[in-house]
User: Fold these one by one.
Assistant:
Number 1:
Amino acid sequence: MPILSDIKAILGGFRITLSHMLRRPVTIQYPEEKRIPYPRYRARIVLTRDPDGGERCVACYLCSAACPVDCISMEAAEQEDGRRYAAWFRINFSRCIFCGLCAEACPTLAIQMTPDYEICKRDIMDLVAEKEDLLIDGCGKDDSYNYYHHAGIAVTQPRGEGLEEAPPVDIRTLMP
Ligand code: SF4
Ligand code: SF4
């Protein structure tokens, strides 16, 4: 009978409504209550330092070249000892899509993504971050890596005696 099928359909709807009323709510009362994202969540970008406090960025432009929306710019400079650094470094967060390609491309681990997602601003010009806004005092996610221990401005050790460097191969041992 049609009336019975109508009642069944109405009761089915009520059953679904009641089952949802008994579930724990998934909404969060932001900003009083803050969600903790996963450690690899990609949000605010920072420039890190190596363990002895030097700036890791060597102004190689790789992050800028990898960025699909072209929102990273900088100017390279050189210290007296030949070590390169960014005289200025700028990220326009109003264009950034937080894809992480810049961090993937960086050979020195200087540029890193953090889980800090609270970066909204009312004025769009406040989303342009300069080097002093980006540079932090710590090493970020890798607190032991120092680029200049692996590829420095002056290599003084004999071959095979660098950090984590394998001894050179004697080519005479490769002869048939
Ligand atoms: S996260 Fe992506 S879009 Fe943002 S600066 Fe890096 S490469 Fe560019
Ligand atoms: S942040 Fe990394 S990839 Fe970008 S210029 Fe500096 S060293 Fe190169």
Number 2:
Amino acid sequence: MHTYGTAAVNTRGHLEIGGVDVVELAAKYGTPLYLYDVALIRERARGFKQTFDKMGITAQVAYASKAFASVAMMQLAEQEGLSLDVVSGGELYTAQKAGFPVERIHFHGNNKSREELEMAFDANIGCIVADNFHELALIDEISQSRRQKMSILLRITPGIEAHTHDYILTGQEDSKFGFDLNNGQAEEALVTAIEKPFINVLGLHCHIGSQIFETTGFTMAAEKIIGKLADWKERLAFESTVLNLGGGFGIRYTAEDDPLEPAAYVEEIIRKVQEETERFDMNMPEIWIEPGRSLVGDAGVTIYETGSVKDVPNVRKYVAIDGGMSDNIRPALYEAKYEAVLANRVNDPVEEVVSIAGKCCESGDMLIWDLPLPKAATGDLLAMFCTGAYGYSMANNYNRIPRPPVVFVENGEAKVVIRRETYEDLIKLDLPLQLPQMN
Ligand SMILES: *Cc1c(COP(=O)(O)O)cnc(C)c1O
């Protein structure tokens, strides 16, 4: 078993996380159950943040909350001194309810509505990451009518896309996000924005991809952007206070993945930004990054109970669990790979290779193909690792399956931070056509 964070096997052969026996947690809270190893989230956050501090760089590490957005999670991000990225009114609302410091909230998205932008002005958040000309016009209009200043970053597409191991240099960027750096749209956006009386352009933002295992994509993007900034300093007298290089730092889902430590990404980024700004005799900007997956991904574990087992002789054995694409859609959506163990008997020898089926009415609802396991019997507990990012946040009620609870574990204590959805919750928004005939 590859172990993440505080995960360990106790003397009973049970999986333990945050010093708590997972079998006991399953008995107490039921299954499926999402667990988060809080100490590991803190460790990841500090890995990013302390590297900037150590190297004397003014920075913001913003948690991309779409990876897992909840009141408790945002409060944990606050405790660790992180900033926060939101991408919708709903995430902003959650941040407000969490009491998150508004000046450290950044608002992303390629189609923010007027209502969402008004909400950002009402809350007076730290900055809006402006994505397109339509949005720039809206921000200008709202800021003028309120006579309220708003800081923005311009989201640009630098013409570099990272696809895990490959970097694709594109001339004309084919992306729904941001202003293109190559075709002049980014400059046009900058010229437009700096003339607006209530808009304060802090700098530039880019996000080149996700699940990236090397530093090359980030350093290439930094180099390209700083080159452009040098040009803009000369011709437009614009100096960027902030350079935001986005998120996308990879994590280990399976043995195939070989990510770097947070510190390694940060060190390389800082080195490159220093080198390039010195080359052009520019001031060092603040560096902002936006990790999502790499802060919460490997801290999350989903616990399922095994149910039916279907053996198709000479083909494969299906072991079904009590959740599936309703609580983790990533295997169905992206063919995402995961590892898992039997949490109630981790030390038992592997005896067979099985495939883990979800319970949704969809043949594609398979969580893991070809997983080596001890012989699984009905009532075993399956712990699937690394489900902390884009698991709960993409959970849904397909087949009217209630969403599982989320429990934080740390220092031997467990705390429910999202309760289990009930059948009553499921019909809360339904309005009947007629009063039901009770019998
Ligand atoms: C999704 C996203 C992130 C976070 O990506 P991860 O792969 O989870 O680190 C950061 N910034 C922006 C703009 C994003 O869209």
Number 3:
Amino acid sequence: MKPHNNIRTLQSKRRTLEERLAAAKRLRAVEDARFRARQAQGKLRRFLRTNLRKQEVIAALALRRGECNRCGACCEILYKCPFLKKETDGTATCGIYEDRPNACRYFPIDRRDLQEVRGSCSFYFIEKPIKLEKAS
Ligand code: SF4
Ligand code: SF4
């Protein structure tokens, strides 16, 4: 192959690589925007549910299992809450724990909430409430 053909091939490969990188960057930006939109929707949903639909929240929490690992991820949904304190052992503490909003108190209410913390939350949900049989 002639030298100028080699140069053209290299330039074309470089263009293809640049185009692929730009496409991957655009995809990441779109995914990030979608994730943030889901978080915003979740924040509003939790606010409305915990303040106006308490029976629905009680029913949903009956399916929740596990314990909080104090990762603090739910305090950084969309933005980092100013009351969040990070401890030296890596755990998180709420600066207004006793007075924290209901949306914080009951997080996560259902599976949808887990999607907003990218797998950090140690709670999980079962499909249906477990009926206890009467002892004979
Ligand atoms: S108020 Fe407390 S529990 Fe609620 S987001 Fe802020 S730090 Fe977290
Ligand atoms: S994301 Fe889940 S495990 Fe982490 S602090 Fe919030 S409730 Fe606890």
